[in-house]
Model the fold of this input.
Amino acid sequence: MSAPIITASAGSTDVGARRKLNEDAYLATAPLFIVADGMGGHDAGEVASATVIEHFSRLVGREALSIEEVRDALAAAREAVGALGQYGAAGAGTTLSGVAVAAVDGLGYWLVLNIGDSRTYQFSDGELEQITVDHSYIQELIEEGEITPEQGRSDPRRNIITRAIGAGSVGDADYWLFPAECGDRMLVCSDGLTTELSDERIAEVLRTEPDPQRAADILTADAVRAGGRDNVTVVIVDAVTVASVRGVHVRADEADDLADTRPRAAVDGGMR
Done:
């Protein structure tokens, strides 16, 4: 049995221009592509993000993941991060965002998860769409109409998050589940990217650079040059081959022959 989505992926990370320690961590190996942005002072954030990646790494090598498997990994990671306070890393916490290869009736789907203010985007048909919704104080102000998204980009409160793994948070992750299409390009990043670069610049790089490693490196370097106020991490995953009808795998250059009209579904309150 073949994986429902065959992917090409890459990741890039940089400490940035102002930080001494890179507290980001990432995983970019099928069927899981995630970014964790640690917090907590000293080396607590670095340990928290690495701990989460370690637990999710146990899922690497499977053809697809179910939401139950992802939830179980998250629960185990949350417990491990919570225990870090016993070893001198009190207050350790991390965000987590990313996408997993999933299957519904043998068809290729993306399963996106998010907790905190790292983000997952879909770049498809030349359009960049943010899938995740930030768990942040600024996002709440935007939703209440008190500030605009543009104002939120420079608001000094933009680093206040409302959900995390660890750091005293008990908020759960959001999940989204929707059909994959050949040619999809998924972007997962820490807020060090989106704080520095506009959606237009991100879309331009994703559109013009077909190689995922080169695209990830360019975006990371651009964010550092633009200010690099935080650690920057970028993961890119391309859908090279997708099972779009039962038992049939379609490559990206054949995708135009098969129209996918199935509705996209949200899982557990996630919104599309």
